[in-house]
Each structure stands twice: as C-alpha cells, then as structure tokens.
Amino acid sequence: MKNTLQAFRFAFFILLLYSCSTIQKIEIMKPEPDEALPISYKITSSYISFPLKLTVKDIESQTNKSLNGLIYEDKIIDDDKTEMKIWKNGLINITEENEKLKIILPLKIWAKVKYGTSALGISIYDTREFNLNGTVTLLSDVKMSNWKITTSTELENIDWVESPTINIAGKSIAITYLINPTIKIFESKIERSIDESLSKTLDFKSNMLDLMQKVSTPVELSPTYQTWLKITPQELFATEAVLQKKSINMNVGLKCLMESSIGLQPKSNFVREKVLLKPSSNLPDRVLINVAAVSTYEDASRVMNDNFKGKEFSSGKRKVTIQNVAIWHKKGKMIIALDMLGSLNGKIYLSGFPQYNAETKELFFDDLDYAIETKSKLMKTANWLAQGMILNKIRENCRYSIQPNLEEGKQNILKYLNNYSPTPGVFVNGKMNDIVFERVQLTNTAIVAFLNISGNIKVDVNGM
Questions:
Q1: How high is the pLDDT of residue 7?
Q2: Tens digit of each residue's pLDDT (9 = 90 or more) over 109-141
Q3: Bridge partners, 212 (sequence order)
Q4: Do 236 and 331 fall within a single domain?
Q5: Collapsed DSSP state (helix, strand, coil) of residue 38
Q6: 80 occurs within a structural domain
Q7: 0.85 surpassed by pTM
Q8: Which of 156, 159, 381, 462 has its CA 20 to 30 A from that of 432?
C-alpha cells in the first residue's frame, strides 16, 4: 500500500505551490488569524476490495514448515487407554482433488495400548507398545470461519513402509494382519494433528490484523517536502473460501480512512481491538480511495517560501520582488502576506479562496483581491499597485493546469499494478481510472485537498 499511494502527493503540492505562487499584500493593519477552534472536515471512507488467491503449493510449503519432527504427543494413557507419539517422517505432499485437499503424509508412530479387565473390584491390565512406519493419505474439506480457514480431515488409507510391529518380551513381532482392522485407534489422532497444523498455517485473522497494524503506521512519501500518508483501518471483510483450480480463493475488503499531511510525522490512530472483521457473501472487485491531503498554514508557508522566495513581478518600469510568504485563515478565506522589495517596499496582504475547475483541470483564485487593509493603504501610497496591474499578473500565474500532474501520478501508480511484488511470493496486479481532484476546504489551521481514485486490484500469493 505504501508505494501505491506515493503519487498522491502531487495534487497536494499543486495546491500549495501553484495556487498561491504569486500572492502579495502590504503591511499596515495586519488581518489577524482566526482564534476560533479549528473547523472540522469530513473524510470519506475508502474501500479497497480485491480477490486473494493462495495456491495449494504454498499451503504445502507452509504446512511443511509448521510440521516437523514430533508432530503429536499424547502422554496420558488412562483417558482412552492409548499413549501415542507421531513423527513426520518426510515431506508432506498436498494437492487439490475434487475441491478437497489431498494430503500424503509420511509418518512414524509409537503407541502404547492398555488392555485388560476389571471385575469384582479386581483390575487386571497389561500394556503393549506398537511401532508403525508408513504413509497416510487424508482428504480435507476447507471452510472459512471468523477469518480462519478450517479443515475437516479424514484418513483415507495407510500404506505401510515397514510392517507394523508389537513388542512382546523385548522382541518386535509383525502384526500387519492385526493392526489394519484396528487402525481406528490411531485414525482420529492423526486427523486431529493435521487439522491443528493446517489451522495454524491458515489463520488469516492474526495475520491480517498484524498487516493492518503495519499499514496504519504513517509513511513518509517525500523527505524533501516532509509529506506523510496515514491510513486508519476500520473494517475488514472476507467472503467464504473456495478451493478450486489448485488454490484457495476468497475476496477481501478493507474500509479505511486516508489522510496525507505535511510536516512532522502524524500519530497512528490504529486500535487493534476496534477493527471489525466481518464475513460477507459478496464483495465487488473494485477500489474506491478518498484521500484528504492536509497541510497546516505554517507548513504551507514554509513550502511556498522554499519555492517562491525572490520571485519578481513587474508593470512597466515598476518591479517588486517577493522576500517572504506567509499564509493563514481569516473568515473562511486564505490571507496571503508578501514581504516585497523594489518599487514598493513593505508588506501587502491578499485574500481569496482556491478553486478547482474539473473540466479544465485547473486550480485558480476566482476572487483573489487585496485585503481591505492593504487596498486602503495602497490607494494613498501606491496607486499604481492598487489599480490591479500587478494583481492581474498574480491572478494569471495562479491559474494552473494539473492535468500533466494527474497523468504523471496515474503512471506512477500503474507501476505498482503490473505484477508488483511488495514481499516475496505476493504479487499485485490491477488497473485504475483517472485520479480526480475533487475539492479544497479551508479550516482555521490547515488547507485540505480531497482526491479520489478508482480501479481494481488482484492479489496472488504464490511462492512464499
């Protein structure tokens, strides 16, 4: 997720760097910033839905990692008159057969069986030890429950590599003809050991919550501009798992909030216990992302100063050069303060609200004008500036097409939708529609730009 969303910063910078690129005012009565509490803004939830495929070969690989050496041990003989140890005796082979997992497991079994009778208060018991070495074949039904894939395994048959033996007076006696009819003694315990192992291997709940915790850690998109992306997961959805075509297939959905910001690293809002994990009968194969790109006025001023300090504007023989830029909020508009040197020395203030034209894909200030304090002073001291020639040039420079930036952002994202592998064995493919710059909102403390993007994603797990 981190890399896919890096391109969102472009619209963020456009708002800060271009829409205010030529903002100017004069200093006599400074329009003081609002002191009211910050105005809240609403973030629309994003939805990321994608099919997830886990190949049977990966299940085989993870099961072999999970099951090694002694895989089952029962030390209590009195509960069912059987004590048992089961060892994995070679690599497990797992395939798909008629929408079930077919598991071939080489194993070695040692068992102690207690037998005898109890009557008239007298107990007469003895024990016998069995040694078995063979390959068992099992079939497992696969189901999804509470974000955990569960299996119901049944033993189909056992092929003995060595004849089963029993210890009698210190000697091993072959008992193949006896053990085959009584294999039920061991069958349920073998089935249980396989189900327990597959349950650990295919537990998506803890894995997904671990992943969500990583996703929620704010990511720095650009060290140069100190831009950050913060994702707050809200809900996770999953459809029933289906085993077919040599893989377990399911659809996964994520509902989350996304915010981009400039400045210091924001704090994560992730609370593991608050993330809801829900089943779903059907999830659309689509992505709908809404991003709120946030910049405090202090950080926006810093970025603009880095890019526009020393910019010159002229009208005839008159010239002014910007020395410093600062912006803040006042009664629903942006106040832009410009320190100038040249034909006019001092500080002027502009007032306006950034607009966006969706048809032309342009950012502009529709009503950018001198603040009242500035205009009254200019009329007395610098009428040539008040008449608007410089202001008109500022307005012209403020109109900027972001179409190339939108296209560049789209191309950057597409790189991560063409067999992209964020981690070994995981592959991401997909397509996306155009990025849409939706609107701008000013708060008392920050500028908020809203973007959205749609498309679809497919995630394959193959070769972990």
A1: 42
A2: 887 877 655 554 555 556 777 788 889 898 888
A3: none
A4: yes
A5: coil
A6: yes
A7: no
A8: 462
